[in-house]
């Protein structure tokens, strides 16, 4: 139990740090985001004093109120779920924009990361089990794929499959002409069809890392005495591989899975921009291009919170699959 | 019956000709390391010397989008700029960013990782908490947010922002390793014999960390170059700089993809990929020092481990 509380405590601190960072970022930066934002909003429609006040709380620059008071107001506003109004998608509130775009990113990034993890760990198990086999010799070349930037791989795949062979669509999340969002076969099929290429990009560029990590851990684990014991007992090799070696070797990969989520979300921002995927990354970019600071801060907060949440989830899962973490605490 | 694959006499000769085993401070020159080093040196040389030899990368000509020719080795952009000249300048820009971020990351991560773990107690707790918090805050979105506030960015600022958002991972790795070194007997012994903390840190502990530090720096350089490329590709890079990322940004905006101008967007990406791959190859070699178990166990080497027919016969005779 103590371990659990420690973990929860850490995530509370991290949450506080994220919120505070989000509060201070616009206040530290040069320029006056509030004025830029309000003047942009004024072009679209009337700005009420209440709206202006809300923006000031989010982005600062209200010099009449002391900083600590602004901070408390800001926290209250965040916990009410009020992140202001978006300029880029005027007059939709920021929360709604995030609500519409987040499922796309979570679906795309979550699924493709999971696929990549499963394939990578699976291949890594066999590569470590049979060192020097053809699978093992694949490891370096697959790891090299990792140094290929996401977005460039996306560009090349798009060029080949979109322009040259025209197998997959060039951009978008689904066919906006023939289908409409909803739980219909047409729509889901369209989403899968449009999502294949972005997902493929993420899988190709990340599978090598999982494979290498798992392979190296397998090699280390196979040198342990209990593997020798298991072999001496005459257990079937497949059982030793799966239950004795792989189960122990996969633990660091699971821990790495949490950390990698942050990188993957970051990478997906760029990938989404290449594919014009209607996810949160595209929304972040359009907010940057439109100087839509409220939306930008909101999205940064949500991305940070999702990464935190995913990390917490993996940490809790880790206590289940690795009893040592519970015993040590 | 198959014949023995190895001639014992030859093997013995090979063993004699090998130099006496020295203490391994440098990684063994494996093909992987050789290829990695060669590519790195070639690309770094291209970045250092190339810009001096080519013409102006921004010069506009009225021959837009021409494929590679004898005059323009990599063709021209849509406004007739020489892609090869741009590539030379971009290589210099990207490598510079990588170098600066690598150094900054090294300083930050060794400060928070090594010093924290060595000091122990509350310092360690605080440093470790700070590191872990920095680790879960996603880097690139933070960089995007920061760089969207600042409209005029110098290369240095981009490098500093990238370093601030990327040191945490390697600090954690370093901390773990320092903790294990710190508790080794010989460190305790030198503590008891009255060595100063500073000396223990620099003379007893740091040399053990060198391979790990080296591999972390190589990683940092890869991440920095990729991160900068991503940032520039989104149009958020340093103002007026030439990097592989800005080339890709202009290629994407110049519709190089739709027009099939592969000579514009393939070279910078390929440079990124090849350079990253070369650094990864170097890292493989460094990894094999940190963890000798990871050294290549290829089929060729395994065959050498087996006993030759002659040895087998001898051992059987001994048993009988």
From TrEMBL, chain A:
Residues 102-314 form the ABC transmembrane type-1 domain. The chain crosses the membrane at residues 9-29, 104-129, 150-171, 191-212, 249-275, 295-318. The keyword Membrane applies. It is a multi-pass membrane protein. It holds the Pfam family BPD_transp_1. It is found in: Cell membrane; Membrane. InterPro entries: MetI-like, MetI-like_sf. Keywords: Membrane, Transmembrane, Transmembrane helix, Transport. Belongs to the binding-protein-dependent transport system permease family. This is ABC transporter permease. It comes from Occultella glacieicola.
Automatic annotation (TrEMBL), chain B:
Keywords: Cell membrane, Membrane, Transmembrane, Transmembrane helix, Transport. Residues 91-283 form the ABC transmembrane type-1 domain. It is found in: Cell membrane. InterPro entries: BP-dependent_transpt_permease (IPR050366), MetI-like (IPR000515), MetI-like_sf (IPR035906). Residues 1-17 have a biased composition (Low complexity). The chain crosses the membrane at residues 33-55, 95-120, 126-147, 154-174, 262-286. Residues 1-27 are annotated as: Disordered. It holds the Pfam family BPD_transp_1. CDD domains: TM_PBP2. It is a multi-pass membrane protein. Belongs to the binding-protein-dependent transport system permease family. This is ABC transporter permease.
């Amino acid at each position: 139990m103590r371990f659990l509380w420690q973990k929860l405590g850490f995530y509370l601190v991290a949450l506080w740090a994220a919120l505070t960072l989000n509060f201070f970022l616009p206040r530290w930066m040069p320029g006056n985001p509030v004025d830029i934002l309000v003047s942009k909003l004024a072009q679209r429609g009337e700005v009420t004093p209440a709206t202006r006040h809300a923006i000031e709380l989010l982005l600062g620059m209200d010099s009449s109120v002391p900083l600590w008071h602004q901070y408390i107001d800001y926290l209250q506003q965040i916990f009410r779920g009020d992140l202001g109004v978006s300029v880029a998608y005027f007059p939709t509130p920021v929360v709604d924009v995030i609500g519409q775009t987040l499922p796309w990113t979570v679906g795309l990034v979550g699924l493709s990361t999971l696929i990549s993890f499963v394939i990578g760990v699976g291949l890594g198990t066999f590569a470590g089990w049979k060192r020097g086999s053809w699978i093992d010799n694949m490891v370096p070349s697959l790891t090299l794929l990792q140094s290929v930037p996401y977005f460039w791989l996306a560009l090349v795949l798009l060029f080949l499959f979109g322009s040259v062979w025209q197998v997959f669509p060039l951009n978008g999340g689904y066919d906006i002409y023939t289908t409409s969002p909803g739980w219909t076969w047409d729509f889901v099929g369209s989403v899968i069809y449009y999502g294949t290429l972005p997902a493929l990009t993420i899988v190709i560029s990340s599978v090598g890392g999982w494979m290498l990590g798992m392979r190296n851990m397998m090699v280390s684990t196979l040198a342990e005495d209990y593997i020798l014991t298991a072999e001496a007992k005459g257990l079937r090799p497949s059982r030793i591989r799966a239950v004795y070696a792989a189960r122990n070797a996969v633990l660091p990969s699971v821990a790495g899975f949490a950390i990698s989520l942050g990188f993957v979300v970051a990478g997906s921002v760029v990938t989404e921009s290449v594919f014009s995927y209607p996810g949160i990354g595209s929304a972040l970019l359009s907010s940057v291009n439109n100087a839509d600071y409220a939306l930008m801060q909101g999205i940064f907060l949500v991305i940070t919170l999702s990464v935190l949440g995913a990390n917490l989830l993996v940490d809790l899962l880790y206590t289940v699959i690795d009893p040592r973490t519970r015993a040590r605490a | 019956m198959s014949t023995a694959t190895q001639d014992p006499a030859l093997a013995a000769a090979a063993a004699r000709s090998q130099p006496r085993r020295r203490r391994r401070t440098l990684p063994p020159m494996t093909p992987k390391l050789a290829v990695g080093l060669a590519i790195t040196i070639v690309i770094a040389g291209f970045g250092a010397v190339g810009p001096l030899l080519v013409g102006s990368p921004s010069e506009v000509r009225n021959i837009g989008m021409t494929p590679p020719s004898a005059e323009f080795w990599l063709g021209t952009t849509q406004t007739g700029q020489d892609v090869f000249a741009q590539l030379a300048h971009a290589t210099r820009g990207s490598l510079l960013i990588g170098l600066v971020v690598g150094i900054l990351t090294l300083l930050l991560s060794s400060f928070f990782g090594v010093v924290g773990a060595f000091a122990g107690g509350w310092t360690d707790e605080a440093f470790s908490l700070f590191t872990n918090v920095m680790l879960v805050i996603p880097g690139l979105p933070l960089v995007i947010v920061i760089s969207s506030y600042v409209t005029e960015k110098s290369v240095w600022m981009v490098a500093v922002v990238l370093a601030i958002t990327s040191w945490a991972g390697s600090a954690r790795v370093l901390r773990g390793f320092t903790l294990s070194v710190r508790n080794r007997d010989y460190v305790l012994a030198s503590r008891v014999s009255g060595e100063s903390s500073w000396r223990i840190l620099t003379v007893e502990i740091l040399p053990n960390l060198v391979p790990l530090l080296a591999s972390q720096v190589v990683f940092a350089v890869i991440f920095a170059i990729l991160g900068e490329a991503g940032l520039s590709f989104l149009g958020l890079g340093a103002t007026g700089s030439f990097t592989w990322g800005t080339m890709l940004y202009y290629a994407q905006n110049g519709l190089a993809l739709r027009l099939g101008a592969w000579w514009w967007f393939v070279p910078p990406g390929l440079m990124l990929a090849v350079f990253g791959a070369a650094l990864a190859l170097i890292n493989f070699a460094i990894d094999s020092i940190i963890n000798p178990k990871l050294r290549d166990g290829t089929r060729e080497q395994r065959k050498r481990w087996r006993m030759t027919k002659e040895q087998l016969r001898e051992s059987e005779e001994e048993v009988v």
